[in-house]
Amino acid sequence: xxxxxxxLGTFSFRPLDPLTDAExxxxxxxxxxxxxxxxxxAGLHDVEREYMAIAxxxxxxxxxxxxxxxxxxxxxxxxxxKVELVGLYEPEPGDVGMHFLVAPTDTPVHxxxxxxxxxxxxxxxxxxxxRRIVVEPDxxxxxxxxLNEAVGFVPEREIHKPEKxxxxxxxxxxxxxxxxxAAR
Length: 184
What we know:
By secondary structure, the chain is of the alpha+beta class. The protein has helices at residues 18-29, 44-56, 112-125, 142-150, 173-180, and strands at 3-5, 9-15, 60-67, 70-78, 95-102, 132-135, 154-160, 165-172. An 8-stranded mixed β-sheet has the order 1-2-3-4-5-6-8-7, sandwiched between helices. Helix 1 crosses helix 2. The termini are close together.
């Protein structure tokens, strides 16, 4: 599925190839703007290993996000009842966990990151079984909290994960459509 953002172009997705995409991803996840991705000190081999593990996982997937056909962001989709949030909240049928990372750039475009998260949400809600998106960003990541709110996420509470204190937030299909409009 692809999403057209007026004035910004087309956003689409393809499965991530851990070997051929690792070098590109390495530059993204080790960039200072990706501090909340927690891979600042990762080597290329570490990135390959991380995404090979995700590719082999039954309940976790990674996708390369394309803007007008060119790699521009990363999306991870996971089952929060099996990965990441096990024992930290009460999962509901149709819950889907999500992470996203926009590639660093020297020439930021106003509205681009919001268009990315909107495209990510549309992609996840394109699956009829998806009822609610679950996110758990670092509590100090104020920029992503604002983006999440803009697309309909409602914070529930802080949770303690092994690697961070996180803000557990949820967005139903109805909340998303109310926040951004149902138009594709």
